[in-house]
Protein backbone atom coordinates (compact mmCIF):
# COMPACT_ATOMS: atom_id res chain seq x y z
CA UNK A 1 0.00 0.00 0.00
CA UNK A 2 1.36 3.40 -0.81
CA UNK A 3 1.67 6.02 1.93
CA UNK A 4 -1.03 8.26 0.41
CA UNK A 5 -3.60 5.46 0.62
CA UNK A 6 -2.55 4.64 4.17
CA UNK A 7 -2.80 8.31 5.13
CA UNK A 8 -6.43 8.32 3.98
CA UNK A 9 -7.12 5.60 6.56
CA UNK A 10 -5.08 6.72 9.57
CA UNK A 11 -4.66 10.40 8.76
CA UNK A 12 -1.54 12.41 8.11
CA UNK A 13 1.45 12.30 10.40
CA UNK A 14 0.89 15.27 12.71
CA UNK A 15 4.53 16.32 12.94
CA UNK A 16 7.85 15.97 11.21
CA UNK A 17 9.39 12.79 12.54
CA UNK A 18 13.14 12.62 13.03
CA UNK A 19 14.96 10.93 10.20
CA UNK A 20 16.07 7.48 11.14
CA UNK A 21 19.48 5.97 11.38
CA UNK A 22 18.55 3.15 9.02
CA UNK A 23 22.10 2.64 7.74
CA UNK A 24 23.34 2.12 11.29
CA UNK A 25 20.51 -0.31 11.99
CA UNK A 26 21.27 -2.19 8.77
CA UNK A 27 24.97 -2.43 9.65
CA UNK A 28 24.30 -3.56 13.21
CA UNK A 29 21.76 -6.24 12.28
CA UNK A 30 23.00 -7.07 8.78
CA UNK A 31 19.44 -6.91 7.45
CA UNK A 32 17.45 -4.41 5.41
CA UNK A 33 13.86 -3.92 6.49
CA UNK A 34 11.17 -3.62 3.79
CA UNK A 35 10.83 -0.17 2.21
CA UNK A 36 7.15 0.15 3.16
CA UNK A 37 7.96 -0.49 6.82
CA UNK A 38 10.76 2.10 6.72
CA UNK A 39 8.50 4.68 5.02
CA UNK A 40 5.72 4.09 7.56
CA UNK A 41 8.12 4.33 10.50
CA UNK A 42 9.66 7.52 9.12
CA UNK A 43 6.24 9.09 8.66
CA UNK A 44 4.55 8.03 11.91
CA UNK A 45 7.27 7.21 14.40
CA UNK A 46 8.21 7.44 17.08
CA UNK A 47 4.89 7.46 18.84
CA UNK A 48 1.55 5.80 19.39
CA UNK A 49 -1.32 5.55 16.90
CA UNK A 50 -4.98 5.08 17.75
CA UNK A 51 -4.29 4.22 21.39
CA UNK A 52 -3.05 0.87 20.08
CA UNK A 53 0.08 0.67 17.93
CA UNK A 54 3.50 1.74 19.21
CA UNK A 55 5.75 2.87 16.37
CA UNK A 56 9.36 2.22 17.35
CA UNK A 57 11.96 4.34 15.53
CA UNK A 58 15.77 4.15 15.12
CA UNK A 59 16.45 7.56 16.72
CA UNK A 60 13.89 7.49 19.53
CA UNK A 61 15.01 7.84 23.14
CA UNK A 62 12.04 5.81 24.50
CA UNK A 63 10.75 3.75 21.56
CA UNK A 64 14.12 2.98 19.96
CA UNK A 65 13.71 0.32 17.29
CA UNK A 66 17.17 -1.24 17.57
CA UNK A 67 16.87 -1.68 21.32
CA UNK A 68 13.36 -3.13 20.92
CA UNK A 69 14.61 -5.65 18.35
CA UNK A 70 17.61 -6.66 20.50
CA UNK A 71 15.52 -7.05 23.67
CA UNK A 72 12.79 -9.16 22.06
CA UNK A 73 15.23 -11.41 20.23
CA UNK A 74 17.13 -11.94 23.49
CA UNK A 75 13.87 -12.63 25.36
CA UNK A 76 12.69 -15.11 22.72
CA UNK A 77 15.99 -16.99 22.93
CA UNK A 78 15.78 -17.21 26.72
CA UNK A 79 12.06 -18.02 26.91
CA UNK A 80 11.04 -19.90 23.76
CA UNK A 81 7.38 -19.55 22.89
CA UNK A 82 5.98 -22.72 21.34
CA UNK A 83 3.02 -20.89 19.81
CA UNK A 84 5.22 -18.85 17.48
CA UNK A 85 5.79 -21.04 14.42
CA UNK A 86 9.11 -19.49 13.34
CA UNK A 87 12.33 -18.70 15.17
CA UNK A 88 12.80 -15.13 16.35
CA UNK A 89 15.97 -13.54 15.03
CA UNK A 90 17.40 -11.55 12.15
CA UNK A 91 18.17 -14.19 9.56
CA UNK A 92 16.18 -15.28 6.56
CA UNK A 93 13.22 -17.39 7.69
CA UNK A 94 13.15 -15.73 11.12
CA UNK A 95 10.80 -13.22 12.73
CA UNK A 96 12.08 -9.72 13.45
CA UNK A 97 10.17 -7.91 16.24
CA UNK A 98 9.32 -4.42 14.95
CA UNK A 99 6.30 -3.04 16.83
CA UNK A 100 4.10 -3.53 19.85
CA UNK A 101 0.59 -2.71 20.99
CA UNK A 102 -0.86 -1.25 24.14
CA UNK A 103 -2.33 -4.72 24.82
CA UNK A 104 1.15 -6.25 24.97
CA UNK A 105 1.08 -7.85 21.52
CA UNK A 106 4.35 -8.07 19.62
CA UNK A 107 4.31 -7.43 15.88
CA UNK A 108 6.91 -9.22 13.75
CA UNK A 109 8.11 -9.07 10.20
CA UNK A 110 8.98 -12.45 8.72
CA UNK A 111 12.35 -12.10 7.01
CA UNK A 112 11.68 -13.43 3.53
CA UNK A 113 15.14 -12.53 2.25
CA UNK A 114 16.27 -10.02 -0.33
CA UNK A 115 12.98 -10.21 -2.23
CA UNK A 116 10.70 -8.13 -0.03
CA UNK A 117 7.68 -9.76 -1.71
CA UNK A 118 8.25 -12.76 0.58
CA UNK A 119 8.06 -10.77 3.83
CA UNK A 120 4.87 -10.80 5.90
CA UNK A 121 3.47 -9.72 9.26
CA UNK A 122 2.91 -11.90 12.30
CA UNK A 123 1.37 -10.95 15.63
CA UNK A 124 2.02 -12.76 18.91
CA UNK A 125 -1.09 -11.92 20.87
CA UNK A 126 0.24 -12.37 24.40
CA UNK A 127 0.46 -16.11 23.85
CA UNK A 128 -0.91 -18.58 23.08
CA UNK A 129 -2.37 -16.94 19.99
CA UNK A 130 -0.40 -16.38 16.80
CA UNK A 131 -1.82 -14.50 13.81
CA UNK A 132 -0.17 -14.41 10.41
CA UNK A 133 -0.93 -11.90 7.67
CA UNK A 134 0.57 -12.63 4.26
CA UNK A 135 0.75 -8.97 3.29
CA UNK A 136 3.21 -6.08 3.42
CA UNK A 137 3.46 -4.11 6.66
CA UNK A 138 1.58 -1.03 5.44
CA UNK A 139 -1.25 -3.23 4.14
CA UNK A 140 -1.47 -4.80 7.59
CA UNK A 141 -1.55 -1.36 9.28
CA UNK A 142 -4.33 -0.27 6.91
CA UNK A 143 -6.28 -3.49 7.59
CA UNK A 144 -5.77 -3.11 11.34
CA UNK A 145 -7.05 0.46 11.41
CA UNK A 146 -9.90 -0.39 9.02
CA UNK A 147 -11.00 -3.16 11.36
CA UNK A 148 -10.57 -5.99 8.85
CA UNK A 149 -7.83 -7.74 10.88
CA UNK A 150 -7.10 -7.92 14.57
CA UNK A 151 -10.60 -8.55 15.89
CA UNK A 152 -9.33 -11.61 17.75
CA UNK A 153 -6.81 -9.71 19.85
CA UNK A 154 -7.95 -6.09 19.94
CA UNK A 155 -10.72 -4.64 22.10
CA UNK A 156 -14.30 -4.83 20.85
CA UNK A 157 -14.49 -1.07 20.40
CA UNK A 158 -11.67 -1.21 17.87
CA UNK A 159 -11.06 0.56 15.58
CA UNK A 160 -11.74 3.89 17.24
CA UNK A 161 -14.05 6.39 15.55
CA UNK A 162 -11.15 8.76 15.08
CA UNK A 163 -7.51 7.80 14.95
CA UNK A 164 -4.98 10.05 16.56
CA UNK A 165 -1.23 9.91 16.38
CA UNK A 166 0.63 10.94 19.50
CA UNK A 167 4.17 12.18 19.16
CA UNK A 168 6.54 10.24 21.39
CA UNK A 169 7.47 13.16 23.63
CA UNK A 170 3.79 13.95 24.25
CA UNK A 171 2.92 10.29 24.80
CA UNK A 172 5.48 9.90 27.58
CA UNK A 173 4.41 13.20 29.11
CA UNK A 174 0.66 12.47 29.12
CA UNK A 175 0.25 8.79 28.18
UniProtKB/TrEMBL annotation:
InterPro entries to which the protein is assigned, alphabetical: Knr4/Smi1-like_sf (IPR037883)
Record-given protein name: SMI1/KNR4 family protein
Superkingdom field: Bacteria
Lineage, broadest ranks: Bacteria, Bacillati, Actinomycetota, Actinomycetes, Kitasatosporales
Amino acid sequence: MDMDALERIIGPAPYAAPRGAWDELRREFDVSLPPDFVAFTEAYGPGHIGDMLYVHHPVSPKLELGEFIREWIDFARQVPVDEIPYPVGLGEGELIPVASTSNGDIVYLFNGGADFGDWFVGVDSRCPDWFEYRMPYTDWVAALFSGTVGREYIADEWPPGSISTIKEEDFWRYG
